[in-house]
Automatic annotation (TrEMBL):
NCBIfam families: protocat_beta. It comes from the Bacteria. It is an enzyme of class 1 (oxidoreductase). Residues 59-87 form the Intradiol ring-cleavage dioxygenases domain. Keywords: Dioxygenase, Oxidoreductase. It holds the Pfam family Dioxygenase_C. GO terms for molecular function: protocatechuate 3,4-dioxygenase activity. This is Protocatechuate 3,4-dioxygenase subunit beta. Its EC number is 1.13.11.3. Belongs to the intradiol ring-cleavage dioxygenase family.
Length: 219
């Protein structure tokens, strides 16, 4: 889908009408994505020998359907920039420091009540060249899988009161202001870990009037 303010969507958006291919049995039944999760997969601060640099945070919430019912056994993956706003990726070469003890990827499977939780570092903003003096607000990418690769949803979580919201075309590509706010987490003092980490709640609703905005790969 092309969005005027987000320049690269003009190159990414398809130039012809999409062709819908019928899912075959192998696509809707497998591969299954509820395999073993490693002990540090949901703690991005302890995946390396040293301590990650930055403000520790806990990001937690529930995955829900349109009726507010829990969605259990859903694989939730995250990826993000480090505290300086740089990704541990070969094509990210803007002059911010890399953190050898933080690679910015994690995963967890929701429990019977649809709960998930990650411990991580609050990411920094970064420049991205979309327009003059363009900076992305701090954000964390979320990917949710159902029972197979064809059942995947991708969204972004933002932090409250970010001064970069107004000039970010990705955030503003969601036309409904109320829907945009559903991508913004809520600071939760009661869930903080005293003298250790701040906490942000981010509930994800898969469909319905209160649905979290997701990327639309077929438009």
């Amino acid at each position: 889908m092309s969005f005027g303010g987000y320049r690269s969507t003009g190159l990414r958006a398809p130039s012809q009408a999409p062709v819908v291919l019928r899912h075959r049995l192998t696509e809707v039944t497998g591969p299954l994505l509820t395999g073993d999760i490693g002990p540090n997969d949901n703690d991005l601060t302890t995946q390396h020998a040293g301590e990650a640099i930055g403000q520790r945070i806990v990001v937690f919430g529930r995955v829900l359907d349109s009726d507010g019912r829990a969605v259990p056994n859903t694989l939730v993956e995250v990826w993000q920039a480090n505290a300086a706003g740089r990704y541990a990726h070969v094509v990210d070469n803007w002059p911010a420091p890399l953190d050898p003890n933080f690679t910015g990827g994690g995963r967890v499977v929701t429990d019977a009540q649809g709960n998930y939780s990650f411990t991580t570092i609050r990411p920094g903003a970064y420049p991205w060249g979309n327009h003059h003096n363009a900076w992305r607000p701090a954000h964390i990418h979320f990917s949710l899988f159902g029972r197979s690769f064809t059942q995947r949803l991708v969204t972004q979580m933002y932090f409250p009161d970010d001064p970069l919201f107004d000039q970010d075309p990705i955030f503003n590509s969601v036309p409904d202001p109320a829907a945009r706010q559903r991508m913004v987490s809520t600071f939760d003092l009661s869930a903080t870990r005293p003298e250790w980490a701040l906490a942000y709640r981010f509930d994800i609703v898969l469909r319905g009037r209160e649905q979290t905005p997701f990327e639309e790969p077929h438009e």
